[in-house]
């Protein structure tokens, strides 16, 4: 993915947690490790439940499984390396490894956003057009939507990574982040085209994310309008309950993203910036399976039926 032979930098140094007190690093390691393992376990439990329970073989839970896969792969791209650096004295990463990490991070990250958008569209069809839902959300149609989400994420990963690593890196090589993140990498690039590349990459990413967010907002605007026309309070509650978990994850996902990427510029604070970045890298994936498991009554009951039936058959 490296398009320029004039770069003199062959590796980068990740300074993400170097500003923290040394005695605090093992504590952060344990906390992040437990959150990472819980994220993996939560997503695997969701996938196993959907696979095991035939009643969940519907589009909404197919999309949820695809979302769990993208989340597992996204965290796998970033967190193991971050955990290693917390306890290691060597924080170097090769140029090719840095490019690969950026590619997979953007691929899985944007796939996640596209899937959240499709899930919003799915809820819109289910509530606003229930009579046509089975036709519009056929198994083939669902498979195509999931496939296009992955293709879109792949394209975004290729575009961003290829553009960034066609720049020339003359040195220094110290990245003030725990991963190969675009803004600190652009600070290390040299050449007259760096400002235009920075603007172009930012515009592409913001357009894609903002487009997804607007589509989700439109879906829920129609959903709310339809729910308000339902005469019974029980019917309104039942309709909204099918959207609660997805809507909560969307708020968390875009809420933390906006805090990180849209915060006003101020005095540099390495510790604060690093901890803020971990909210999107670790906390958001950690919360997602919890939200879907607790806010989705049907999934919660299916989990109890799948994993507790043998242990406590009288309670299931």
Q: Can you offer a commentary on this structure?
A:
Helix content is 72%, strand content 4%. It is built from 10 helices and 5 strands; from the N terminus they run βααβαααββαβαααα. The relative contact order is 0.15. The strands form 2 sheets. A 3-stranded mixed beta sheet has the order 2-1-4. It has helices spanning 25-52, 59-87, 95-128, 133-136, 139-164, 182-188, 194-228, 233-261, 270-295, 297-307, and strands at residues 11-14, 92-94, 168-169, 174-175, 189-190. It is globular and about 65 Å long. The termini are far apart. Residues 1-6 have low confidence and may be disordered. The protein has a single domain (11-315), classed as Rhopdopsin 7-helix transmembrane proteins (Up-down Bundle). α2 (59-87) runs antiparallel to α3. With 316 residues, it is mainly α.
Number of helices: 10
Specify the CATH homologous superfamily.
Rhodopsin 7-helix transmembrane proteins
Radius of gyration: 21 Å
Judged by helices, strands and strand pairing, the structural class is mainly alpha
Output the strand order for the largest sheet. 2-1-4
* CATH architecture label name: Up-down Bundle
